[in-house]
Amino acid sequence: MNKVKSLKTLILVAASYILSAAAAVSAPFAHWTKSELILDNGLVKRVIKLPSPAGNFLTKSYQPVTGEFKYFQSANADFQFEINGAIFSGKSEWSLSAMTAISDLRGGDGAAVTLLSTDKKVEVAVKYLLYPDLPVIRKSLVIKNSGDAEVALESVDVEKFQVAGYYPTTFSWICGDYGRRRSIGPYDGNMQDALVIVHNMDWQAGIVIGNEAAGVMKHTSVFWDSPTICSGLTHKDARFPFRKWLKPGESFETPQVFTMVYNGHQDPDEMLNTAVPDFVRKHLGIRLSELKEKPTFVYNTWNPFKKDINERLIMELAKAAAWAGMKEFVIDDGWQDSYGDWGIDKKKFPNGLKPVFDYIKSLGMKPGLWVSVGSAAPASKVFQQHPEWFVKDENGKLTSLHGEADKYTACFSTGWRDYIKGVLTKLMLENGLEYLKLDFAVVTSPYVFDHTKSGCYAADHPGHKDHAESLAANYEPLWKLFDELHQLKPGLFIDCTFETMGGLQLIDYAMLKHAEGNWLANFYGPDEQGDLRVRNMAWWRSPAMSATALVIGNLQMDDKGWETHIKSLAGALPIMLGDPRKLSPEQLKKYRSYADWLQAMQTQYDIMSYRQDMRGFGEPKEGGWDGFQRINTDTKQGGIIGVFRQGALETERSVSVNYLEPAKIYRVKTMAGKIIVTATGNELATKGFEVQIDGLFAGKLFEVCPR
Question: Are 258 and 136 in contact (CB under 8 A)?
């Protein structure tokens, strides 16, 4: 009987412990009193002064929960924006209207504070979200026109911090351009600054700033015109200024900005390789994380065939590509009868596209198609019937934002968006498309350097009132289009090219939330130079951006150095072009071994969800060694690594592998299955193993797996 009672007691104690633990896990991250809002998830803590009942709204402190952090002053403006030229910030006078607990569908928990200006004409809801086990706070503003006249909203800083005096501004590294380019001194960011890190090497502390605004609309500045750190939308004096006209009673919610404060890190790359990709993968809401089957090996027809394609050629290429183990087959430009109407050229494809796509599927590949999502030729039916749907320049004339005289650019703030949705839906559902490459400029062009030749100057388009408003107004319908296509086909892979994004090699978090990939570059040239440029681009953009979203062309299957092509591309999204018909049966068999290995690694480790830097190997460059890891940091079961010699004098290098379980025993194996080393995770991180590469320009891939 006593044993039964003891057992019951143990069960009750265990149940109590479990309930307590569950309560602790589910405890809200936001608490408030009449005078303070406290945001605390156990890793970071932010204390905000509330108007009580009226007054300023200021971030009093923002720091890691443990350790010292000295970056910010004790009275930060928190946010700032302009309405009709008048500045509103947390340092303005506000009355507190409401405090509300909020959450999102991806683990976020926090609070929204609603403030009303003293003249009662502006209302702003400041929304904060924190996430479990990550030092991140994600923030947006909902700005409402509470007056009785239309107003212009401009120069929006979602986050605004005042730094503490001399040391942050003097000794901080500013890591811009996806966290990869280091500088000292004032910094005014641009479209490439989806992620900026400010790091003080002496303090071993800093802040990560992730800007989720779209394309050319993002702005982050560090110590630029004052000792502040600001992030949000472009200012009214920018090359591509943000503006939103708000009617009485109308609200606008800004894109989110996420920040991470940290200490105890000697190098900012430690955050770039850990907390940043963890947050992006788990909580940002990127499409790749929702895609059940990620691509592992893609073929595209663009180079060398350009537009010179037809049914017979595509069938021949598809057969050879399937023998090589390709998993996706994308038909690029040249299949259509016109830009705009997007009918099928019956001279090239007399039986239409469906038999071609059916054949591609029968070979075990997913079919894809290129479409210019916002272009129409003057002779197209859609342009002839609806010229009012197209972009106008500053002189009121129809124009091409892409800089090409044979086509016009559509304005997504018109009926064009619904029209092109119908075109894409028909192509997708009738032909069984699994991959859409959506191309060409819709807001700005990478190839037109006059910033006045951007957006739309039409005064009668329903989605924008003027040119400045048209810039952001044309991104949003594009994202909505992508979302609606995904609703129709959840497994669809959308490749939104850098041309559509509006900047050279431009990719960002806004795009990742609505499209899976980005055709990031068109590289041509000698074999080893092409390989280097691929690895350069993958390193420049990751780990801040998901590596599998980096679609880097145009390495060709029939190049003499194609094996190094595959190895280099394994650090991004492997995509090949060229003419696979030129390959011998032995070469196709070798291709197949690479394709099957990559697919096996994806199946076993989900490598396409991860990429990390390799310790001691920096930016790929001539005369050096470089490498990457794709280790599953959630399961810690393993993954792959790639190591490359790019003309270096030495033929051997020590290689370490990080982010594994320290005490667990792993094996490093060649692609053929030969065991190179057996060691614990700690030993692989601290001692590593030797890699020998005899070729002057060559590389090797390895599997890391549990023993």
Answer: yes
Of 363, 362, 331, 336, the C-alpha closest to 347 is 336
The CATH number linked to 150 is 2.70.98.60
Can you tell me the distance from the alpha carbon of 638 to that of 626, in angstroms, rounded to the nearest whole number? 20
Contact 532, 567 (CB under 8 A): no
226 and 164 fall within a common domain: yes
CA distance linking residue 511 with residue 287, whole number of Å: 9
Cα 681 from Cα 142, distance rounded (Å): 46
Dist. CA 641–CA 629, nearest whole Å = 4
Same domain, 397 and 535: yes
Task: Please state, in angstroms and rounded to a whole number, the distance separating the CA atoms of residues 446 and 226.
Answer: 31
* Beta-bridge partner residues of 181: 176
Q: How far apart are CA 265 and CA 36, in angstroms?
A: 30
Write out the DSSP string of 49-96. Answer: EPPSSEE--EEEEEEESSS----B-SSB-EEEEEETTEEEETTS-EEE
Q: Which residues contact 57 (CB under 8 A, 6 or more apart)?
A: 48, 49, 50, 51, 78, 90, 94, 113, 115, 126
pLDDT tens per residue, range 586-638: 999 999 999 999 999 999 999 999 999 999 999 999 999 999 999 999 999 99
Note the pLDDT tens digit of each residue in 5-14: 333 333 333 3
Cα separation, 296 vs 517, whole angstroms? 12
Residue 154 in domain: yes
What Rg do the C-alpha atoms of the chain give, in angstroms?
A: 27
Cβ–Cβ < 8 Å for 73, 28: no
Q: Determine the Cα–Cα distance for residues 234 and 501; give it in Å rounded to an integer.
A: 16
CA distance 392 to 415: 15
As a three-state string, the secondary structure of 152-216 is EEEEEEEEEEEECCHHHHHHEEEEECCCCEEECCCEECCCCCCEEEEEECCCCEEEEEEECCCHH
DSSP secondary structure of 367-412:
EEEEEETTEE-TTSHHHHH-GGGB-B-TTS-B--TTS-TT-EEBPT
Question: What is 272-316 written as a DSSP string?
Answer: HTTHHHHHHHHTS--HHHH-SS--S-EEE-HHHHTT---HHHHHH
Domain shared by 89 and 118, yes or no:
yes
pTM: 0.95
| Pairwise CA distance, residues 455 & 374, whole Å | 12
